[in-house]
Amino acid sequence: MTATQTRAPEAPTRPTDNAARRWTTPGVLLVLVIGLAALPTLQESLGLDAYLIVFGYTLFFWVTQASAWNLFSGFSGYLNFGHAIFYGAGVYVTANLARESDPNIFVAILGGALAAAVVAALIGYVIFHRGLAHEIFALFTFALAIAIGVLVRNVDAIGGGGVLMVSMVTYPEFLGSVNEMLYYLGLLLAVVAVVAAALVQRSRLGLGLFAIRDDERVAETMGVPTFRYKMIALVLAAAIGGASGALNAVMISFIEPEATFGIDVSVMVVLMALVGGRRHWAGPVIGAVLMFSLSDRLTGLGMTELSQLLTGLLLVVVIVGLKGGIHERWQRRPRAGLITFLGVLLVLLVTGLGGGFIGALLFALLAMIVVLVVPDAWWARLVNRSREGQPR
Amino acid sequence: MLEVTDLSVYYGEARALEDISITMDQGEVVAVLGANGAGKSTLVNTMAGIIPARSGQVLLDGAPLQRLASHKVVGEGIALVPEGRMLFNQLTVAQNLKLGAYSLDDRSEIGALQQTVYDLFPILHDRRDQKAGTLSGGQQQMVAIGRALMARPRYLLMDEPSLGLAPIIVDDMFDLIVRVHEMGIGVLVVEQNVARTLEICDRGYVLEQGTLALSGTREELLGSSAVREAYLAM
What we know:
The complex is a heterodimer of chains A (392) and B (234). Chain A is 78% helix and 1% strand. With 392 residues, chain A is mainly alpha-helical. In chain A, strands 1-2 form a two-stranded antiparallel sheet. Chain A is globular and about 70 Å long. Chain A starts with a helix and ends with a helix. The N terminus of chain A is likely disordered. Chain B is of the alpha/beta class. Chain B has ten helices and ten strands. At the A-B interface, α1 and α9 of A face α2, α3, α5, α6 and α7 of B.
């Protein structure tokens, strides 16, 4: 079949993988994590705002939840619109432990992971064992989250008659203040979530999930154990979501069924993954950083409604202009994206025009999106024109 | 030896196949011919374990394959190149090939199989990081065949491999069936392109409305007036 070889256009060739390339991303991430872990210690001497610690924790929380959601739903294509079920299972483990005495945070986190995993196993068994379709899964999870909220509101043994308080938890002293403890453990869970997603993506399990997303019937004929894989991924995603929920109970401290199982968490994680990109572990990370810093800045300026409007606008831009999410386009223009992001970040930090670190981060991300949102054809023309303009 | 004995398949109440018996050796290229709706695709899909039989058996070296899930049938050494290719369009060529070897465990063997496929289709090596859905029709058919070969089959079932391909590529397609056969793999090919199929097969079966109308060697089929009138328009 040589005829096709001459007919089709040449595909861009990629340099072959080598050891240096393979370790670049883990290396950069390791440095980043070490830097983030050192932040609370250095914060005062660097003259940084103490709010950064709280901001950091909440950012880690969203990175964790969005990555956990994506590990199952993004990779397999089964959209879960009730991720709050798993998150909430964790929240309520801590809340119920706190009814007796101040719980140990590690016990709460493990308990939260376990509770969410059990709930996920039940849901997964009911849905996947019958081979129900994607749409049914989406509707089922959405409805179940609401139903569970009502249930918790009315069952005193779980919901405590409406409101539960988590006033204090016990933890080792070296973790510092409560906010610092939240920051460190939040970072740890975010690392766990992102590493888990990256490992799954590279594994046989990940390849099987991608095949399921593309065509489940064909995947089955290839020998992909579809039922088992969906169960494993859903339970893993739930466990991470539950662990992070258990920690977050300390942050919110005033626990209500509607806020916990409502659409806030469920919808937010879907949007973050959608904006960032669902086919890669980095997608939900980018989406979470972007969307949370946007809403944080605008809320901080007292513009909560504007925040919702802009979030909606951002969604439209990404869905229309960046099919497949920011990360997928970034893979095609990695250098342009990275240079824009780092360049704008650096300029804003040095000049102080961004209004602090969070603002600089946000504007740098938005600038990167502007560069990435240019359609491929225009981009090619732009690059060519700038090359022609240069003296030979 | 791959055998089908007294196989009947129904879609609800509608009869698709009735009392079909065929045999083939690993050294053969066997054709299944027939008009649209004759039951050709039903036959190969049943053999691949995708469609359940109402009665009768599929036997591999005398052992029944019935009641095996389709992915178990792959493990037994029977691979299907489905009609319409059924690729994972959003996944890369390399990922598609890897999924073909999903029933195998040995990594070095998978690597060797992948090399065999790339040797057979050098263009797939160039395109290995490209999404399968972005390839031309002929290249997609190569991926489909390559993916089936990744399961290390002893028997390859091909359902309308020339469907939807440009005429010049159809010729390449049939050359390719011969090359796969030369690798020691038995090939069962379902085709509507009767003339080209009869050039490359050893034996053939003709299905009509779910029943076996005719069978014989290539020469016998070419000599049959029924085949010449119905399919070759001679």
